[in-house]
Specification:
Length: 177
């Protein structure tokens, strides 16, 4: 079983989100591979600039919402038709579909509840965010006001460093992957 050799990583620290975005676009246009960008907040357009695939979270949210809708339908059927039917305001209590308009608020709320909560837990699971998880950002300043870009070093290190300085990097460092 052979080990694959990984390229060293060059890290560049920036202090402006617009500069980081234009630097990512410039580097990718010149054939460099930007592997990661650490930011204290989302940068609009960064995922497209880095060439990342569209997230499937919206598709998951749809199915989570359907799960909530089915659960709400079952819950209202079980509680109001099967378990404890009552004649409320002269409405028939033996058929769910005749009572369904009065269940719409419950169905809506549980659809939203399931979609929101399951999306949140999915996000945590996919990103490894759980109690006791080790912080993934290599520089604590990326949680405050700086941006860190990691570029795979595939060619001349001096050329990449010069390019990063031209693009506005404040600090440049190299780590072995």
């Amino acid at each position: 079983m052979g080990h694959t050799k990984h390229n060293p990583i060059v890290r560049a620290l920036f202090n402006d989100d617009d500069i980081v975005l234009s630097a990512v676009k410039d580097l990718r246009a010149n054939g460099f591979h930007v592997s990661e960008v650490y930011s204290p907040f989302p940068i609009h357009g960064l995922d497209e600039a880095m060439g990342l695939k569209r997230t499937r979270l919206s598709t998951a949210a749809f199915f989570y919402g359907l799960t909530g809708l089915f659960f709400a339908s079952w819950l209202t059927y079980y509680t109001m038709i099967m378990d404890w039917p009552q004649n409320i305001g002269g409405k028939p209590n033996s058929m769910w579909f005749l009572n369904m308009p009065s269940f719409v608020p419950v169905m809506f709320e549980l659809t939203v509840f399931f979609a929101a909560h399951l999306m949140c837990w999915s996000y945590f699971a996919v990103n490894g965010l759980y109690p006791g998880a080790k912080a993934q950002n290599p520089d604590p300043r990326t949680t405050d006001d700086h941006f860190l870009m990691e570029v795979e070093l595939e060619g001349d290190e001096a050329e990449l460093n010069k390019k990063l300085q031209e693009l506005g990097a404040l600090e440049i460092s190299k780590i072995e992957a």
